[in-house]
Design brief:
About 20% of the residues lie in helices and about 25% in strands. The protein has three helices and eleven strands, in the order H-E-E-E-E-E-E-H-E-E-E-E-H-E. The protein starts with a helix and ends in a 5-residue tail after the last strand.
Length: about 200
């Protein structure tokens, strides 16, 4: 009888160990888009649909306005004459998308990164602070949106453009974010939409 009890104990312990391993796996980082220290591949070639281009664009917003369409995964900088400069972007993953009307309140070149506490809680492996530079997930430029934790910024992972991967920020390849940065001043109106305008 003791052999049977010992066997049951061993099986129970093995099942508990397997369950804890599965639980531990489930607790792994939930945002593969954040890879501090990875240096962007500047030779990465974007799919043509995500490349910067001038497009026809109907809107009632004045030239100089930024319109972000999270469903299309494009950012539009409205130009005169019914046109816009369109950039491919990475957007918030499911559960981290939002919409609203804000302004650019600050701009930074090679910005430092201080992940907010809620991001640290989800991804404890992240650094508490990271100086700006090529390995910083915010990339070459950042434009801060209102008083929120959200930004339009570069990326050290150009292959994530066109995907839903971030915690709510909008990312562009470094060349595109530098181009946008040079075109818009602090105070620029930013319209974030989840659905296309009819």
């Amino acid at each position: 009888m003791t052999v049977l009890r010992h066997l049951v104990f061993c099986i129970t312990a093995a099942i508990a160990l397997a369950c804890s391993a599965v639980h531990g796996f489930a607790q792994q980082p939930d945002d593969p888009g954040d890879q501090p220290g990875l240096v962007a591949d500047d030779d990465y070639e974007l799919d043509p649909v995500w490349r910067k281009q001038i497009v026809y664009y109907r809107t009632t917003e004045p030239p100089g306005t930024i319109i972000i369409s999270t469903t299309e995964r494009h950012l539009y900088l409205v130009q005169p004459g019914g046109r816009a400069i369109r950039y491919g972007i990475g957007v918030g993953r499911d559960g981290f998308q939002w919409q609203g009307l804000l302004n650019i309140t600050r701009k930074a070149e090679w910005p430092d990164w201080t992940p907010p506490p809620e991001m640290i809680q989800r991804q404890p492996y992240l650094p508490r602070f990271m100086a700006g530079g090529p390995g910083n997930p915010l990339g070459a430029r950042a434009m801060y949106l209102g008083t929120t934790v959200y930004r339009i910024h570069g990326t050290n992972q150009p292959q994530t453009i066109g995907t839903k991967i971030s915690s709510g920020c909008f990312r562009l390849v470094n060349a595109d974010v530098a181009d946008l940065y040079d075109r818009v001043p602090v105070g620029t109106k930013v319209v974030v939409r989840q659905k296309p305008e009819l």
